[in-house]
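B., you asked whether I could sanity-check this one before it goes into the benchmark set. Here's the sequence:
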Amino acid sequence: MMAFDDADQTIRAYEVKRGAGQFDAGKIRSIKRDLMCIQVLLKSYGETAAVKPQSADAKIIFYYGMRSIPRPWSLVRDELDAHFDFPIVEKVEQANTYFKERLYALLEAA
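And here's what the prediction gave me:
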């Protein structure tokens, strides 16, 4: 997921994971490497995407709270609303409820 913040002219990239379990050491190294590479390349990408970012930031979101990568590279659900200055969790939970209800309806029909 990517976002450009007009207020501070920052382009940000996010990888979203459930965050319900731990990763092994190899996966953690891979995620950290990916985050660092994305952060290095993100500003120039933003310039080709018709925005002029002053800075770039990459993070991974562990939605259900089990943080496998430490701060400042990661966020958990309880930090999202403050980070985005918008009620993100409420919107995600609405989507979760919608898709769970649809899934259960499909399973009952089968």
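One thing to flag: The chain has a mean pLDDT of 93. Otherwise nothing jumped out at me.
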